[in-house]
Design goal:
By secondary structure, this protein is α/β, with parallel strands linked by helices. 34% of the residues lie in helices and 13% in strands. It is built from 12 helices and 12 strands. The strands form 3 sheets. Strands 1-2-3-4-5-8-11-12 form an 8-stranded parallel barrel, surrounded by 4 helices. Strands 6-7 form a two-stranded antiparallel ribbon. A two-stranded antiparallel ribbon has the order 9-10. Strand 6 and strand 7 form a beta hairpin. The N and C termini lie far apart (56 Å). The C terminus is likely disordered.
Length: 396
């Protein structure tokens, strides 16, 4: 019965979306938008059904948190670029070059190029895990995986990186004060050097929701939701920010530049907003989730960059495709999905169900956030508590 319900929902989604996209081309050409396809649930549809859903949304990039053979097989010849993951618990194993070669030979080579694997994320949020051995092992494991790709002639097609929590930053406000935690500097430098040597991006998991939840009295909701607001101006660069996500990304860019690696590409491996939460999870509502993701999609349609890099389109992976009922932690952790497991929308972000003009999907006018503001006063009520002094700001 569950499979039949999902199939019905998928057919309805596909038909409705086909009608919309054929006339308006929604998400066509938005090459910087991806979706995180998490699978920590016992009630998700099959990978074949998931692929049908992703294709109906015209999304061409996805990220999974393992190398599930069913997913890799189903996504063959699909046109979807896929990032796969080496789980945290295998990092110590693939440090060994021979074990890394075996892992790539087993989990990547049989599926590529039919399945267009474009990246391998070695572990997730290692530097904020508290596991010092895991932190120490990470870059050697990444190097071993990359060497295995080189041996198999795949290194020019598949990059190797890792996803980092925003908590690796000691300072993120204002963005020009962005700096890594001092206790991470020693192990962060080898990572940045590896990424620079291999041409791989620095991935960041950035959630403005957490900042708002932790201090709703001092952080304006409109600022974190991409809603119209006065924003804030970085007092050093004079760059204007009308949303927190772009400010967080630029803070990461500044932190990386301070370490001497200003040319690295920074991408958002996860961002999203929960549609439900516990009583103490302020802001975790259906309405806020719909607003955040709808507004983010609009920015993606505009191919925007951040104020610091306005001409470089920001690559963003939404979290997540589905609600995942087996994720541990607070209620919010199980409610980040755009869709329920039966294929129906958790809420409407303008993907389907309305004509693009009435949903504001194709007819809106985007105002760039990358404007220089030389004269301003009291542009945002962000408390001085968040202000940190910074060293000489690096050049870009």
């Amino acid at each position: 019965m569950t499979s039949m319900c999902f199939s019905f929902a998928i057919v309805r989604t596909f038909l409705l979306f086909s009608l919309l996209s054929s006339d308006f081309g929604f998400l066509q050409g938005v090459s910087t938008l991806g979706i995180n396809y998490g699978q920590v649930a016992n009630n998700l549809p099959s990978p074949d059904q998931v692929l049908t859903l992703i294709n109906s949304l015209k999304i061409t990039k996805a990220r999974i948190y393992d190398t599930n053979p069913q997913v890799l097989t189903s996504f063959a010849n699909s046109g979807v670029n896929l990032i796969v993951t080496v789980p945290n618990e295998l990092v110590s194993v693939v440090m060994d070059p021979q074990k890394a070669l075996q892992w790539v030979t087993t989990n990547i080579k049989p599926y590529f190029p039919e399945t267009n694997i474009t990246g391998i994320a070695v572990a997730n949020e290692v530097f904020t895990s508290g596991d010092t051995q895991l932190m120490t092992n990470l870059v050697p494991a990444m190097a071993s995986i990359h060497s295995a790709l080189v041996q198999l002639g795949l290194e020019s097609f598949i990059h190797v990186s890792t996803a980092n929590s925003l908590a690796v930053l000691a300072n993120s406000y204002p963005p020009s004060a962005g700096a890594f935690s001092s206790d991470l500097a020693g192990i962060m430098r080898p990572l940045l050097q590896f990424l620079a040597n291999t041409g791989a991006p620095f991935w960041i998991n950035a959630y403005p929701y957490f900042a708002y939840k932790d201090d709703p009295n001092r952080i304006p909701l409109d600022y974190v939701l991409f809603n119209p607001n006065l924003g804030m101006v970085d007092p050093y660069t004079k760059l204007h920010y009308d949303n927190m996500l772009y400010a967080q990304v630029d803070a990461a860019i500044f932190a990386i530049a301070r370490m001497g690696f200003g040319g690295l590409d920074v991408r958002v491996s996860e961002t999203g907003w929960p549609s439900s939460g516990d009583q103490n999870e302020l802001g975790a509502t259906l309405e806020n989730a719909a607003i955040y993701n709808t507004n983010l999609l609009r920015r993606q349609l505009g191919n925007e960059g951040t104020p610091l890099r306005p001409n470089q389109r920001l690559e963003v992976y939404l979290f997540a495709l589905f609600n995942e009922d087996m994720k541990p932690g607070p209620t919010s952790e199980r409610n980040y999905g755009l869709f329920r497991p039966d294929g129906t929308m958790a809420y409407n972000v303008g993907l389907i169900g309305k004509s693009p003009s009435s949903a504001g999907i194709a007819s809106f006018a985007l105002t760039s956030s990358a404007t220089q503001a030389r004269h301003f006063s009291s542009v945002v009520e962000v408390d001085e508590l968040y202000f940190r002094t910074w060293n000489a700001v690096p050049r870009f």
